[in-house]
């Protein structure tokens, strides 16, 4: 047995390519006193990893060139020298793109496979679901009858945002790429409308889907999607600014004209609330999240979809595809059984 690892080979300029990654087989590490050996079952692939490939200033340190790519994982404890963990237990960890890792136990959360499939701890019941819950309820604060719009709506953050908006009595409008994702949002998740951002007349379709304007825009994307949303924002609209995936591969500002003046004017005259957040800002809400979302799932009011790729070696290609909208649901790599 070897420890298969995917490393950052070089920093991308623009969209990442397979050449930005390399792989190696290292010996399986041996746990010392107080440590556990973890075997990765699932690796989560998330948009934030694009930021970790760059070395510019950000809220978190970059992955060093030659280092193991960072990532959340669901792991099995295969050997334990830590009294808090027993071999065979399943834990939520952050051990990155590798098949084995050592942990001293700090930051591990035990998962109960009888409560939910353990993979959900990386999606609807994990960081992305928590992002949706905290950002929507704390910053968006949707009221019954209001219109909530969310982009990247077929992904784990957006899908959860729309379904919680419905639970709160709001009208949910999703924006996603392609007819299949839009049909899924409407027919399976109960969104009131779903619009394809690739359609020629996307701004007109969005306007028609929001006849009373937009009260909450949960921003996951930026770019052309935000340009279509901005004129529809109502007075006192709230914008939880969660992500800007349309820009993650950008190497320069888009060509002019400078639209920041119009944006700042809208913020002023419409009295908009725009608040950026990182999910860790709301850590104290974790107990409420772990109480509410499983209950809503049990009632069939929150559903989820996973897009599972088999084998760690497929992670780079799958991650590149995530940035292009090729995933359909929470993107996971099944690393071992
Ligand atoms: N602030 C935080 O703490 C925090 C935490 C978690 C996630 N996030 C952010 O939340 C957003 C969604 O994350 P997720 O994990 O749920 O990802 P996801 O939806 O599974 O994947 C990203 C999706 O973004 C869409 N997309 C990519 N480029 C686009 C473009 N140019 N225009 C419109 N849509 C585009 C694609 O879907 P389509 O096929 O629909 O275009 C793609 O599938 C990301 O921006 C992420 O960075 C922030």
Lay out the secondary structure:
Layout: E1 2-8, E2 21-27, E3 36-44, H1 48-52, E4 73-80, E5 90-93, E6 100-103, E7 109-111, H2 127-140, E8 147-151, H3 156-167, E9 171-176, H4 179-188, E10 193-196, H5 202-209, E11 214-218, H6 223-229, E12 233-241, H7 260-269, E13 273-276, H8 286-298, E14 306-310, H9 315-322, E15 330-334
Parallel strand pairs: 8-9, 8-11, 9-10, 11-12, 12-13, 14-15
Antiparallel strand pairs: 1-2, 3-4, 3-6, 3-15, 4-5, 5-7
Helix pairs in contact: 2-3, 5-6
NADP nicotinamide-adenine-dinucleotide phosphate binds at residues 46-48, 128, 131, 151-152, 154-158, 176-177, 181, 197, 220-221, 223, 225, 242-243, 245-246, 277-279, 322, 325, 327, 331.
Structure description:
- This protein has 9 helices and 15 strands.
- The chain has helices spanning 48-52, 127-140, 156-167, 179-188, 202-209, 223-229, 260-269, 286-298, 315-322; strands at 2-8, 21-27, 36-44, 73-80, 90-93, 100-103, 109-111, 147-151, 171-176, 193-196, 214-218, 233-241, 273-276, 306-310, 330-334.
- Strands 3, 4, 5, 6, 7, 14 and 15 form a 7-stranded mixed sheet that branches.
- Strand 12, helix 7 (260-269) and strand 13 form a beta-alpha-beta unit.
- The protein is globular and about 60 Å long.
- The model has no long low-confidence stretch (mean pLDDT 97).
- Bound molecules: NADP nicotinamide-adenine-dinucleotide phosphate.
- NADP nicotinamide-adenine-dinucleotide phosphate binds next to helix 2, helix 3 and helix 6.
